[in-house]
């Protein structure tokens, strides 16, 4: 246990904050031991993984627990497991991108489109992370948690996690109740590329052509016909796209996408289309999902800098700390963007990272 620890190195926005008490759990055993010691203790508890989805706006008065537990196990025969699938369980502190890469190396597929997303395995269900047409909820079997109310380990099914768009039970009503210990995934051992989102299919084909590998992405990607891209090609393409569009947090402090893509009714989208014919939107179960980055870009915010904070020049969804910024400065910029988008388009942008 350490006291008065500077949390700047532990959040990717590099925002300054002090933790009155800080401890890092490097194994499952350490994690459960710390939890047991804290059971019934008064004061807030901040759970910290990779710190990539967090805005630290104040000091942490209670305990900050950094989860760094590691370990991956696999079951090839489990209750309810489909044929040609494996059940893979990863400890909460496993780095997400390395976990996706490991699964790919083992011939366990499905997570390729989620490559290079920062953070840890334990944080993935909280946000129901998603990219390029895939959400992690599609592959989660169950989430093992410590229930702080009951003082015991529990296993929550996919349905019990109440997953939604960038949302889950853990992000809402049970934000302070459950501490994620591990996550189990059901992953197929036969690869089926998922290329329907945006320009991913074309990007895979272009990257493969440059590498001298011929693939055909125009055919039905569910057909399994020869000539479709490999899982490694999809993985590499997603990594290349993200590296091109998104700044590396280790080089330029950021928290990835700062705003969610808003979902609006079809009628509202059609009205906006008449005024803004180039507006970008995709069908969603609840209406039309707009590209928040397009809205911010059209409003002229891309590349704008206010002192130590600004909007990334290549990706309007990303807010940057150029060095020495405070959370107040960052949130003022975010608020100005939100107000402008609502004024111009009548659309409310919701902040994606958790604001402490």
Distance between the termini: 22 Å
Strand elements, count: 20
Strand order, largest beta sheet:
6-7-12-10-11
Rg is 21 Å
Sheet-strand content, in percent, reads 25-35%
Shape type: globular
Given helix and strand content, the structural type is alpha+beta
Mean pLDDT: 91
Q: Specify the number of helices.
A: 8
The description of the largest β-sheet is:
5 strands, antiparallel
List keywords for this structure.
alpha+beta, globular, 356 residues, four-stranded mixed sheet, five-stranded antiparallel sheet
Task: Give the helices and strands, then pairings.
Layout: E1 2-6, E2 18-25, H1 28-38, E3 45-48, E4 54-55, E5 60-67, E6 72-75, E7 85-91, H2 96-106, H3 124-127, E8 130-131, E9 134-135, E10 140-147, E11 152-157, E12 178-188, H4 200-210, H5 231-245, E13 253-257, E14 263-264, H6 266-275, E15 281-284, E16 287-290, H7 292-298, E17 305-306, E18 309-311, E19 318-321, H8 327-345, E20 354-355
Parallel strand pairs: 2-5, 3-5, 4-20
Antiparallel strand pairs: 1-2, 6-7, 7-12, 8-9, 10-11, 10-12, 13-19, 14-16, 15-16, 17-18, 18-19
What is this structure, in a nutshell?
It is built from eight helices and 20 strands.
Structural notes for this entry:
The protein is built from eight helices and 20 strands. By secondary structure, the protein is α+β, with helices and mostly antiparallel strands. Strands 6-7-12-10-11 form a five-stranded antiparallel sheet. A four-stranded mixed sheet has the order 1-2-5-3. The radius of gyration is 21 Å and the shape is globular. The two termini are 22 Å apart. 41% of the residues are buried.
């Amino acid at each position: 246990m350490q006291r008065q620890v500077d949390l700047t190195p532990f959040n990717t926005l590099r925002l300054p904050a002090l933790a009155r008490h800080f401890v890092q759990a490097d194994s499952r055993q350490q994690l459960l031991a710390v939890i047991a010691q804290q059971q019934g203790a008064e004061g807030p508890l901040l759970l910290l993984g990779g710190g990539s989805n967090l805005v630290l706006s104040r000091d942490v008065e209670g305990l900050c627990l950094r989860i760094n537990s590691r370990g991956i196990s696999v079951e090839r025969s489990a209750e309810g497991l489909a044929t040609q699938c494996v059940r893979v369980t990863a400890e909460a502190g496993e780095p997400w991108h390395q976990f996706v890469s490991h699964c790919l190396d083992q011939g366990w597929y499905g997570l390729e489109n989620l490559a290079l997303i920062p953070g840890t395995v334990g944080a993935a269900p909280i946000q129901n992370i998603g990219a390029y047409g895939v959400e992690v909820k599609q592959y989660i079997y169950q989430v093992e948690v410590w229930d702080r109310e009951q003082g015991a380990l529990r296993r929550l099914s996919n349905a019990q996690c109440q997953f939604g768009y960038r949302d889950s039970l853990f992000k809402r009503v049970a934000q302070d109740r459950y501490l994620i210990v591990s996550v189990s995934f059901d992953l197929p051992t036969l690869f089926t590329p998922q290329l329907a989102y945006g320009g991913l299919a074309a990007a895979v084909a272009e990257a493969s052509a440059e590498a001298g590998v011929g693939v055909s992405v125009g055919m039905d990607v569910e057909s399994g016909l020869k000539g479709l891209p490999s899982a490694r090609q999809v993985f590499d393409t997603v990594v290349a796209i993200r590296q091109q569009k998104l700044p590396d947090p280790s080089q330029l402090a950021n928290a990835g996408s700062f705003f969610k893509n808003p979902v609006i009714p079809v009628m509202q989208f059609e009205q906006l289309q008449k005024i803004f014919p180039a507006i970008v939107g995709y069908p969603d179960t609840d209406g039309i999902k707009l590209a928040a980055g397009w809205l911010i870009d059209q409003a002229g915010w891309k590349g704008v800098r206010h002192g130590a904070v600004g909007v990334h020049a290549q990706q309007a969804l990303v807010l940057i700390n150029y060095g020495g910024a405070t959370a107040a400065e960052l949130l003022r910029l975010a608020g100005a963007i939100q107000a402008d988008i609502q004024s111009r388009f009548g659309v409310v942008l919701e902040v994606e990272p958790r604001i402490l």
